[in-house]
Design goal:
mainly alpha, 2 domains, 3-stranded antiparallel β-sheet, 3 strands
Length: 329
C-alpha cells in the first residue's frame, strides 16, 4: 500500500515540496530584512521599556509603515492555501479512482476497500501534516518581528502560524475525500469541498473565535493615548492583545450614544491644549471601556481552533470510510 500510494500521489508530493521551497525563498529572504531593521532600530528595547518616548514612537511608526503593509499583503495571498491544498488532495484521492475506473481493480484485490482507504488516508494525511507544519514554521519565523509589535492575533498571523493551518488543511482534505466519494468527479469535488470549507472557516474566524474564552474588560483613563487594534491595552499578558471593542462609558458603566459622543468630540475640538481636554473628560466622569483577549491566550486559542477543525476532519473521514464500506459500487 505504501508503494502504491506513493505512485499515485508522487506528483502531489512533488508539488508540495516545490511549494515549500518557493515559500521559503520568498518569506525567509524578506523576513531576514525585517529582522535586520527590527534589531538595527532597537525596537525590542522600545517594546521592553514602553513606547511613550518620541524616539520609540517614531521608529515604531517607521517600522510599521515599511513592513506591515507588505507583510499582510504576502500573507493574504496564502490565506486560501489550506482550503485549496486540502480540497485538491482530498478530492483526487477517490474522485480520480472513479473517473479512471481503477476502483474496480483496487477494490477486488485481497485488501478490503475500507482497509485500502484507511491506509491511503493515513499516508496522504501524514504528508499533508508534514507540509503544512513546515509552512507554518516558515510563516511564524517570517512574521516574528511583526508579531512583537502588532501581536499574533492580527489578521493573517493567527491563521497561518501555530497549529491552526494544519487543522484547516486536514478539514479541507476530509471534505475533499467525502466530496470525491459522493460526486465521483475530481473537479466538482474540489469546488464543493472548497465552498464547504469557506462556509465553516469564515464564521469560525469572524464570529466563533473570539468566544473560545470570555474576554477581559478594563476601564481606562479616557485622556490617555489609546488607539484601536492590537497593542492598545497594556496588560500583564503583554501589550499585543486582541481588542474586540472599545467605547466611552459614563459613571454608571453605560455606553454613550452616538449623539453624546459627537457632542463631546465637538467640545474637545474647542480646547487649545491637551491639559484642558484631559480635565474636561475627567470632569465628565467618563472612562474608556476596552474588551479584549490577552495576547497570552494565543496558544490556547490555537489549540482550541486546531482541535475543532481536526475533530471535524476525523468525523468526515469516518463518514467517508463508513460510506465506502456500505457502497455497492
Amino acid at each position: 500500500m505504501i508503494w502504491l500510494t506513493w505512485r499515485q500521489h508522487r506528483a502531489q508530493a512533488l508539488v508540495g515540496a516545490v511549494l515549500v521551497v518557493l515559500t521559503a525563498v520568498v518569506f525567509l529572504s524578506y523576513g531576514q530584512s525585517m529582522r535586520g531593521a527590527y534589531a538595527q532600530d532597537g525596537i525590542g528595547g522600545c517594546l521592553a521599556h514602553g513606547t511613550g518616548g518620541d524616539h520609540c514612537q517614531s521608529v515604531l511608526t517607521a517600522f510599521m509603515g515599511r513592513f506591515n503593509g507588505v507583510t499582510n499583503h504576502l500573507l493574504t495571498w496564502f490565506s486560501p492555501l489550506p482550503g485549496l491544498i486540502g480540497a485538491i488532495v482530498g478530492a483526487s484521492l477517490l474522485g480520480r479512482e472513479y473517473e479512471h475506473g481503477t476502483w474496480r481493480l483496487a477494490w477486488t484485490q485481497a485488501v478490503p476497500r475500507t482497509r485500502w482507504l484507511t491506509a491511503k488516508l493515513s499516508l496522504v494525511g501524514l504528508g499533508v501534516v508534514a507540509t503544512t507544519m513546515t509552512l507554518s514554521a516558515i510563516f511564524g519565523w517570517f512574521r516574528s518581528p511583526m508579531d512583537q509589535v502588532s501581536g499574533r492575533f492580527a489578521p493573517g498571523a493567527f491563521d497561518l502560524e501555530g497549529l491552526s493551518l494544519t487543522g484547516y488543511t486536514l478539514f479541507a482534505f476530509a471534505l475533499g475525500v467525502l466530496a470525491g466519494l459522493l460526486l465521483r468527479r475530481t473537479v466538482p469535488a474540489i469546488v464543493a469541498a472548497f465552498a464547504a470549507f469557506l462556509a465553516v472557516r469564515l464564521p469560525a474566524e469572524y464570529w466563533l473565535r473570539q468566544r473560545y474564552q470570555s474576554p477581559v474588560t478594563r476601564l481606562l483613563d479616557p485622556a490617555g493615548d489609546h488607539t484601536m487594534g492590537p497593542g492598545s491595552v497594556p496588560t500583564s499578558s503583554g501589550p499585543r492583545s486582541w481588542v474586540l471593542s472599545q467605547d466611552l462609558v459614563d459613571r454608571t458603566g453605560r455606553a454613550l450614544s452616538s449623539s453624546q459622543h459627537d457632542q463631546i468630540t465637538q467640545r474637545l475640538g474647542g480646547f487649545s491644549n491637551p491639559a484642558a481636554s484631559d480635565a474636561y473628560l475627567r470632569g465628565l466622569g467618563l472612562h474608556l471601556r476596552v474588551v479584549y483577549q490577552p495576547a497570552g491566550r494565543f496558544w490556547h486559542f490555537q489549540i482550541v481552533e486546531a482541535a475543532l477543525f481536526t475533530g471535524l476532519a476525523a468525523a468526515l473521514l469516518a463518514i467517508a470510510i463508513w460510506r465506502l464500506r456500505h457502497r455497492s459500487s
